[in-house]
């Protein structure tokens, strides 16, 4: 439940403004502008009568809606949901649900998918990408394509986190990728524990512009997770139990609960940026010696976050390559 001090209509209006600003394509945007796509829907059993008021609020404030679905026809229901998600994410997220995900007893399915595509403000040169050793926490190693760039970016040495950090901005956007690299090869778990309650904005505020030799591996992630258990661990228990109150969602009928929450994300990081054809170029610079040049070499597990001051859109780690 929301604390009494919070006003539900105000929250809905604020969230609608957030979606409008961050997830809508600007009519004046250039081809280089980032693409940030999010798909949200609630699929409910067609035998349940939906509240018209809820549907209107979901559409206007949350850009979502409750869709009556014949879960008894599981194959068709799953295909309908997967086709919608694939369309909303420009074909990058496919088969979100497996054929056995629903049945005639399913009350509701909540679906969320997010897709991101952008170019770096300072792209890496494909000429400079070469194979390097990536060391994993368990002592194993692998050979990976390591990108290299020499740029002036925000950089920080964070003693309290026992880590280094850089911020790589995206072109024509306030979005950036924050990369946090533990000082120890096996320091990923400890770093993530320290970050569990951290404000990334405060971390970025501590960073300063510096000339940095950047070594960052190319990586591609397709992440899928059932959010039921994590949401329960965060305290959202009632919605999955007999104590659930969806009286504002359903106009009538028996008491209902949420069966499942699925989330899937796609991310591809390369020389040009995220999910874009890599550019090849040569960079010519003056032959001068910078005695304060920093080195950031992500050759072991690290944390990344795609963010701006308002929100974190992707957060994850690269542990094995």
Automatic annotation (TrEMBL):
Single GO cellular component term: extracellular space
Pfam families: Serpin
Originating organism: Bactrocera dorsalis
CDD domains, A to Z: serpin42Dd-like_insects
Transmembrane segments: none
Family (UniProt): Belongs to the serpin family.
Protein keywords: Protease inhibitor, Serine protease inhibitor
Name the UniProt record assigns to this protein: Alaserpin
UniProt-listed InterPro entries: Serpin_CS (IPR023795), Serpin_dom (IPR023796), Serpin_fam (IPR000215), Serpin_sf (IPR036186), Serpin_sf_1 (IPR042178), Serpin_sf_2 (IPR042185)
Highest taxon of source: Eukaryota
Molecular function terms, GO-annotated: serine-type endopeptidase inhibitor activity
Sequence ranges assigned to domain Serpin in this UniProt record: 1-321
């Amino acid at each position: 439940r929301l604390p009494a001090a919070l006003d539900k209509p105000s929250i809905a209006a604020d969230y609608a403004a957030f979606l409008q600003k961050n997830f809508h394509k600007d009519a004046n945007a250039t081809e280089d502008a980032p693409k940030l796509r999010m798909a949200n829907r609630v699929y409910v059993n067609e035998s349940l009568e939906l509240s018209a008021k809820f549907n209107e609020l979901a559409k206007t404030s949350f850009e979502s809606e409750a869709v009556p679905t014949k879960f008894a026809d599981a194959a068709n229901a799953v295909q309908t949901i997967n086709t919608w998600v694939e369309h909303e994410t420009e074909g990058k997220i496919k088969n979100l649900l497996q054929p056995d995900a629903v049945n005639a007893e399913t009350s509701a399915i909540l679906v969320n998918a997010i897709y991101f595509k952008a170019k770096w403000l300072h792209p890496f040169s494909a000429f400079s990408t070469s194979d390097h050793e990536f060391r994993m926490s368990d002592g194993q190693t692998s050979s990976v394509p390591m990108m290299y760039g020499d740029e002036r970016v925000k950089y920080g040495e964070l003693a309290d986190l026992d880590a280094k950090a850089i911020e790589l901005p995206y072109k024509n956007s306030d979005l950036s990728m924050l990369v946090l690299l533990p000082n120890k090869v096996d320091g990923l778990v400890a770093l993530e524990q320290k970050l569990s309650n951290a404000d990334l904005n405060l971390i970025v505020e501590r960073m300063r512009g510096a000339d940095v030799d950047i070594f960052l591996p190319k990586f591609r992630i397709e992440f899928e997770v059932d959010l039921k258990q994590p949401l329960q661990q965060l305290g959202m228990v009632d919605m999955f139990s007999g104590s659930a109150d969806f009286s504002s969602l359903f106009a009538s009928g028996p008491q209902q609960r949420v069966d499942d929450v699925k989330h899937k994300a796609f991310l591809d990081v390369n020389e040009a940026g995220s999910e874009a054809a890599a550019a090849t170029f040569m960079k010519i610079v003056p032959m001068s010696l910078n005695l304060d040049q920093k080195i950031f070499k992500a050759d072991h597990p690290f944390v990344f976050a795609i963010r701006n001051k308002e929100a974190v859109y992707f957060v994850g780690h690269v542990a094995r390559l």
